[in-house]
Amino acid sequence: MNGKFDADKIDALVDARNGRITPLIFTDPELYELELERLFGRCWLFLCHESQIPKAGDFFNTYMGEDPVIVTRQKDGSIKALLNQCRHRSMRVCHADSGNTRAFTCPYHGWSYGVDGALKDIPLEDRVYPQGACKEQWGLLEVNRVASYKGLIFGCWSDETPALEEYMGDIAWYLDGVLDRREGGTEIIGGVHKWEIECNWKFAAEQFASDQYHALFSHASAIQVLGAQPDDEGSKKLGAAQTARPVWETAKDAIQYGQRGHGSGFFFTEKPDANVWVDGEVAQYFRDTYQEAKERLGEVRALRLAGHNTMFPTLSWLNGTATLRIWHPRGPNKTEVWAFCICDKDAPQEVKEAFERSATRAFGPAGFLEQDDSENWVEIQKVLRGYKARQSKLIVEMGLGNEKVREDGIPGITNYIFSETAARAMYRRWADLLMHEKWADVEKATEQFEKELV
Ligand code: FES
Ligand SMILES: [Fe+2]
């Protein structure tokens, strides 16, 4: 390994056993380059939802790390992911966010590729390549592996990484709480909100994995305004005074899960109560579909209508709120947020619209909860511009030593919801990935870390 960070130095950046991390992991350009190569170059990354490319010739433009990638539906119904980079001189061959096409034609000199990535046409081919062009070798580069999980499409550049479901591990159980509530599965409603925030991607990914704690304080005013006593039917009225006891006092249980970089947190409530900020139609829909969800997923996940989650590294979602997002890295100091509204395909149209309204109001680019969150991350990034600020270690110690494996079917390494188990696991996984060239060594290191926990 070249540069100032060898494996031992990276190891020392994340002292998860004592709950300390070095701020450099959020600021250093060399570490960022290593992330692009070893983390984004090897992990399974979310690309788009199958509902966004239903027909042959449909495409959706996204990124894997900083690499632009076109996801396309082939004639035979299969899905390919292609590097959006002309083989001639690197121009982007497709600029639209999404659409349907028979060809991707490069706007620079007009080379034209099929939706399978094959190079079909070179303008004036006989004149510019009198000896003949190697068209069959000059197709768009293809992402090595593409796989779907219950409607979500993922891509992976490495052949060494385990299959998608193995990579997901127990986070799949948590994700099913969104993807598998009803027979018809899910779909994406409307377009994708995209905006930039001036902070490292890990602040966002970590918070969705591990940080319910901030909500007590950062979102206190918003929750107070929206908080309401359930009326007799159990519905909630927006704007009513907050008189109920806080959920962390009333919940039957409160759980954080964190393992292999993934993380999740939720309160275990007794009724299918939706978040206080969703429209009444959404709350009613959850009550109406509770029985079906319970039959499919069991009581815990059917009741789990609030909760935060990250599938390592950059896919996050909130149960009940219908926001699913990806944190595209844009250098150590910047993140491009892409927020999708996901909901059950079989939901009535007016409920889908209510989901979209609710998600946008709370977690759209100007969402009142989103603003609270990004304000924190952006300010931290500014603080870390200071030299002194980068010398002290951050304290990631909450709940250290209290990790356990439960016996009630809630899987994985868990802790009390207000802990930093998932953050420690995420940064440890981050370090393991950056340190080791072979995936087998990454796994070995992660397993060793987990063995010491439980
Ligand atoms: S860069 Fe695409 S045709 Fe030249
Ligand atoms: Fe938040």
From TrEMBL:
Keyword Iron: yes
Listed Pfam families: Rieske, Ring_hydroxyl_A
All residue ranges annotated as the Rieske domain in the record: 45-143
Pathway: Aromatic compound metabolism
GO molecular function annotations of the record: 2 iron, 2 sulfur cluster binding; dioxygenase activity; iron ion binding
Keyword Coiled coil (UniProt): no
Superkingdom assignment: Bacteria
Assigned keywords, A-Z: 2Fe-2S, Aromatic hydrocarbons catabolism, Dioxygenase, Iron, Iron-sulfur, Metal-binding, NAD, Oxidoreductase
InterPro entries: 3PPDioc_HcaE, RHO_NdoB-like_C, Rieske_2Fe-2S, Rieske_2Fe-2S_sf, Ring_hydroxy_dOase_asu_C_dom, Rng_hydr_dOase-A
Family, per entry: Belongs to the bacterial ring-hydroxylating dioxygenase alpha subunit family.
Protein's name in the database: 3-phenylpropionate dioxygenase
